[in-house]
Structure formats: structure tokens, C-alpha cells
Amino acid sequence: MRIAVVGSYGTGMTMRTSRMPGRGETLGGAAFSLGPGGKGSNQAIGAARLGAEVSLLTAIGDDVLGAQGRELWRHEGVDASAVVTVDASTMTGVILVEDDGENRIIVAPGALDLLRPAHVGGFADVIAAADLLMVCNEIPADVVVSAVRTAADRGTRVLFNPAPARDLPQDAADLVDLLTPNLTEAQVLTGLDTTDPDVLLDALRERFSSTIALTCGTDGAYVDDGTDRTHIPPVRAARVVDTTGAGDAFNAAFAVAWCRGWDLRRAARYAAAAGAFAVAHHEVIPGLPHSEDLGPAL
């Protein structure tokens, strides 16, 4: 099972606080931690931990944060030979997490802004050899489109995670095989101001012929293959301490299950279990499960 990932890498600087400061307010008593992140890298590591052979394309800076990324991928068994080093700082995100696990994130893209479609061209053979391409929106829009088109041209299925929320040109949307938005991202893709899953799915279905997995937080998820629509109940976490990596854990697990040929319901339950595992752990990387962590979900 081979998965190619075109996406982001960066470092997260996390502040844990009892509440968010108001405008102009300085709030003390927070706890600080520093760790790797970026949706592309997170999903690549998540898929590798669940048994996939994963190759990653992203851009990093020639700095200590970029070097830490390369060491992380080596440790996690992710092929990073295509990762490019550019003349900019490695992406950095500042993450504010409240006691109930809710988070707010600000990102400085840095090196990711220098990732180009030409880099995707150099990754084309890896995409062609993969069973699935995963791509997310934390990279320039033209790189997303180039990755999707490259996969389609070479007969590789595409999982598009539209996070952060940003639209996709219709000609590229037509090439997506699996779409995995959350409610906010679905609102952006449809232009609708509603959280009704059925309304959003109906609108997404007008634009995307793909299978859709809509994640709805504590309401679980919905899967829609164009014929059937099914609600997947949430998997209850033992505790909720940090929701930051839940979507990445979900996407990685869904990708692996889909590559294994599991039906949508089983794949979504597996992915939901991965998301539940993630929110019970502080920071993203510790919250990405290994196969043995999801055994009961099989």
C-alpha cells in the first residue's frame, strides 16, 4: 500500500491557557511546548504509523526547524527524499489551546509559499506509483491543482482534504475521488451559512462527483458515495485535551482504510476512532495512532 502526500510541514508553538485573552490583554499562567506539525506531514506520519508506505513532498527552510523535520520523517519511516529546501523559514504556527481542548491557530507559511508546480512535476513518478495521493490546502493553490491533475493523468486516486478552508477550481474538483471537509470547510466550498450536514452534502454533491466524508466533530461524520448517505456515530474519546490533530488523524486512517478496500462505513468508523485517539492526547504527533491503538475499531 503506497500513499503519496503533497502538503505542508511546519513547527507548532503551542500555548495552553485557561481562556483566550481579550483584545489588548496580556494573559499569564500559560504552558508552552514546541512540536512538529503541518497537515501534510501529520497525515503522512499518521498513514505510515497505520502501515502505509508513504512518500512526502513539501518545502522547508535551511534552518533548525527544517532539519528537525527531516529527522522526524526518518524516525517515522516517511520517505522525504523529494522534500525541497528553499530560501525561506520553515512554516511556523502559533496554537492557542483552552482547557476544554478547543484551539485557535495562526500560521506563517514561510517556505511553503515557495512550493511550486514544478516540484510536483519532479514528484510525478512517485504519484504514479502510489495507490492514493493525499493533498491539502496548506500549500499554494496552484500546487494543489497541479498535484490533483498529475494524479488524475497517471490514474492515481486523489483524497483532497480542503483544510484550511479554500475553494478548488471546478476542473480540478472534477478529478477528486474522495473529499474530506469538516463543517467549516464545507461551508466555504458551498457558500452556504449552515451547519446542517444534509444541506451541505446536497450542495457538495452538486459540485463533486467524488465520495464525500464530512466530519462533524462531536456529531461524528457522514459518508456519501453519490448513491447512499450514512451517518457514522462519533467514537467517544476517553478525554478531550487537544483537538488540533483530530482531522489529520481522521484523514490518515481513512486513507489507509480506503487503500485496503474497506467499505465506506468501516473506513469511516476506523477514521473516527483515530480522531478520538488524537483528541485524548496533547499535541499532534503523540496523538497519531498506531494500528494497535485502533484494534477495537476493526
Automatic annotation (TrEMBL):
Positions bound to substrate: G38, K39, G40, S41, N42, E138, D248
UniProt cross-references to Pfam families, sorted A to Z: PfkB (PF00294)
Record: active site: D248
Annotated cofactor note: Requires a divalent cation, most likely magnesium in vivo, as an electrophilic catalyst to aid phosphoryl group transfer. It is the chelate of the metal and the nucleotide that is the actual substrate.
Enzyme class: transferase
GO CC terms of this entry: cytoplasm
Binding site for K(+): D242, T244, A278, H281
InterPro entries registered for this protein in UniProt: Carboh/pur_kinase_PfkB_CS, PfkB_dom, Ribo/fructo_kinase, Ribokinase, Ribokinase-like
Keyword Nucleotide-binding recorded: yes
Pathway assigned in UniProt: Carbohydrate metabolism; D-ribose degradation; D-ribose 5-phosphate from beta-D-ribopyranose: step 2/2
EC number: 2.7.1.15
Chief subcellular location: cytoplasm
An MF annotation (GO) of this entry: ribokinase activity
Keywords: ATP-binding, Carbohydrate metabolism, Cytoplasm, Kinase, Magnesium, Metal-binding, Nucleotide-binding, Potassium, Transferase
Cellular compartments annotated: Cytoplasm
Catalytic activity field: D-ribose + ATP = D-ribose 5-phosphate + ADP + H(+)
Gene3D superfamilies: 3.40.1190.20
Listed SUPFAM superfamilies: Ribokinase-like
PANTHER family: RIBOKINASE, SUGAR KINASE
Function according to Swiss-Prot or TrEMBL: Catalyzes the phosphorylation of ribose at O-5 in a reaction requiring ATP and magnesium. The resulting D-ribose-5-phosphate can then be used either for sythesis of nucleotides, histidine, and tryptophan, or as a component of the pentose phosphate pathway.
Protein family according to the UniProt entry: Belongs to the carbohydrate kinase PfkB family. Ribokinase subfamily.
Subunit structure and binding partners: Homodimer.
Name recorded for this polypeptide: Ribokinase
Gene name of this polypeptide: rbsK
